[in-house]
Write a structure and sequence with these properties.
Largest sheet: 18 strands, mixed
Protein name: Aspartyl protease AED3
Shape: globular
Strand content: 25-35%
Helix content: 10-25%
Keywords: Hydrolase, Protease, Signal
Family: Belongs to the peptidase A1 family.
Oligomer: single chain
GO molecular function: peptidase activity
Radius of gyration: 21 Å
InterPro entries: PEPTIDASE_A1, Peptidase_aspartic_dom_sf, Plant_Aspart_Prot_A1, TAXi_C, TAXi_N
Length: about 425
Amino acid sequence: MATLSFVAFSVCLLFFSLAQGLSNNPQCSEAKDQGSNLQVFHVYSPCSPFRSTKPMSWEESVLQMQAKDQARLQFLSGLVARKSVVPIASGRQIIQSPTYIVRAKIGTPPQTLLLAVDTSNDAAWVPCNGCVGCGSSVFNSAKSTTYKTLGCQTAQCKQVPNPTCLGSTCSFNTSYGSSTLAANLSQETFTLATDAVPGYTFGCLQKTTGSSVPPQGLLGLGRGPLSLLSQTQNLYQSTFSYCLPSFKSLNFSGSLRLGPVGQPKRIKFTPLLKNPRRSSLYYVNLNAIRVGRRIVDIPPAALAFNPTTGAGTIIDSGTVFTRLVEPAYVAVRNEFRRRVGIYPFQTLGGFDTCYSVPFVVPTITFMFSGMNVTLPEDNIVIHSTAGSITCLAMAAAPDNVNSVLNVIANMQQQNHRVLIDVPNSRLGVARERCT
């Protein structure tokens, strides 16, 4: 079968210069990054140098995505129960798969890098010259006139995990997925679209082990002290929105819109909830789920927000398929099957509701406090290239970890604008064609 565009979630990323991958495609021009609007690329889209060159069947791609997603959810489950900045679930190898990337120019004169976008992480970090275990293309701090390292007595040094002092430089070590990384805490001019942010604090990677660290670097869109929101509070007023590209679309990008200017006016909001144990995550109140016209019977405890255990619902850009705790998923899945009718269903990897005959896809509505989001067919099911298999693109949270999180993932967010408004403690969703 032909390779689907959403094979993009494979983690075999090869890092090389942006110019090498993008220069020949007018759709990918840096000129499209304007003002405070950045293009958002699917990590293996034709506009991305990280796209896979190895063809695989549709079944192989779905199984691979599902496996990576399970690891991502274990990572998120580890975050909610711990107080360190980037903890992981104890004793498990966890591979994260950032699926969307943006362009950033770093340094003076600027060097262009691609950064993975992650709403559940805070600090930015990039591979730097001399890094052991990083790829061959890195940010060369020696060629920038505005680069500097931060000392051990700075306030920022107290905000990173496991800070240590090497001479006068603040360094830190942390885990990311199944990998470890060591970085010097540094400051540099970051330019996003046409907005220059001088003195942006980030981790300049000096050593990595394992295969989980995104070779292109990472931009944290959480709300912790070293996140983009916190460091650009005066510029963007802790407000941003994004519209994610569909898996099906090859030659377009979504957008990351920074700041309150230009955000949609006609949009419904739900309150953001605060979890002091993991303040970076974007928790919301999911009160009920409707399949077709029926609100399914879900035990209240399966949706309830509990800061102590980390239970509740988050919006996350790094998970591919929505995961619901088992009682909630079973209720949704059973009503979905009932509405589809008498057709026999089959399983594919972690998906347990797949059909090999055409059927009418019932709508699914997430009912949040103050806001309902009804998903169209493209956000509910995935189809094989030949159209011979169609699966409900949701699954139960893994039962091999203490998973209490419902995660509204990026497939269900595609072709919607998700607006994060931290000062007013609210999250908005509106339909928008990212094409």
